[in-house]
Amino acid sequence: MAGFRSLARQVRDPRCDLALRRYSLRKCLERFAPYGHRATWDHLCSRAGFDPEDRSVDPARLVAALDELEEARAVWLAYEVEFAERRRKEKHDGLRRPGTVDDWHRMTWGGFGVAWCDDPRVHPTEPMAEVLRRLIAALEREPGSSCPVCGGARLVWRHDLDHEPSSGPVCTECGILVPRPVLSPAALAESRRARLLVSA
Fold first, then answer.
1. Closest among 125, 161, 156, 181 to 36, alpha carbons compared
2. Does residue 165 have a cis peptide bond before it, meaning omega lies within 30 degrees of 0?
3. Beta strands in the chain (DSSP E)
4. Share of the chain above pLDDT 90, in %
5. With 60 as the cut, is the pLDDT of residue 90 above it?
6. Does the pLDDT of residue 83 top 90, yes or no?
7. Is 200 a residue whose pLDDT tops 50?
8. Is residue 68 helix, strand or coil?
9. What is residue 98's predicted lDDT score, i.e. its pLDDT?
10. pLDDT attached to residue 184
């Protein structure tokens, strides 16, 4: 099975036919898709300026989409290296029990669903690398009361998400499943109340 870098080479290779280049970009999302496969694809298509169903995409647009994906992946991989180093140090210092950020991180290892968007058409509009930088910054500071990606204050608790965890606070503005560790207990409670108001 091809890895992310070999698939990326195929996307860039002008000797490959267009169908293979597009297919290789889609396959990259099996290795790294921060919003989930469908939402990440929709995001890349809209940012690079081609329709998700377009089978004859301008190769330059495919490469632009890949560039954005690679930049975001580099941000996430750097975070994972720092995370692993921190955990090694904590274990060395006798802290064996992982915290809530560690529990969340274990479910997103490799970058799949880091900023899960259950509705593939509702996702952040900013460059993906910037979204991940904001998310990582939020994981490294005290919990807050708003979405770490867009700053939206309206979070609604949703059930039956196509992700693990299958329920949690979703930002009604940018569509991400907000990681619980970045929200204060009051913000989590408010998102649960908002769910009750929406369903009433």
1. 161
2. yes
3. 155-158, 168-171
4. 73
5. yes
6. no
7. no
8. helix
9. 57
10. 95
Residue 2 token pair: 């091809």
pTM: 0.89
Backbone angles phi and psi of 154, in degrees to 5: -95, 100
Which amino acid would we find at residue 74? Answer: A
Q: Which two tokens stand for residue 137?
A: 């910054």
**What single string gives the DSSP state of each residue in 143-162?**
-BSS-TTT----EEEE-S-S
Residues in the chain: 200
Question: pLDDT tens digits for 122-181?
Answer: 999 999 999 999 999 999 899 999 999 999 999 999 999 998 888 999 999 999 999 999
Q: Sort 51 into a burial class: Cβ within 10 Å, 0-12 / 13-18 / 19+.
A: exposed
Report helix, strand or coil for 29. Answer: coil
Rounded Cα gap, residues 129 and 97, in angstroms: 30
What angle separates helix 128-139 from helix 59-92, to the nearest 10 degrees?
10
pLDDT at 121: 95
First to last CA, the chain: 48
**Sign (positive or negative) of CA dihedral 162, 72, 23, 1:** negative
Tokens standing for 76? 């996430």
82 φ/ψ angles, rounded to the nearest 5 degrees = -65, -40
**63 vs 10, 70, 81, 188, 194, CA distance in Å?**
10, 10, 26, 39, 41
Mean pLDDT of the chain: 90
- The rounded distance, in Å, linking the Cα atoms of 60 and 77 is 25
The whole-angstrom separation of Cα 12 and Cα 21 is 7
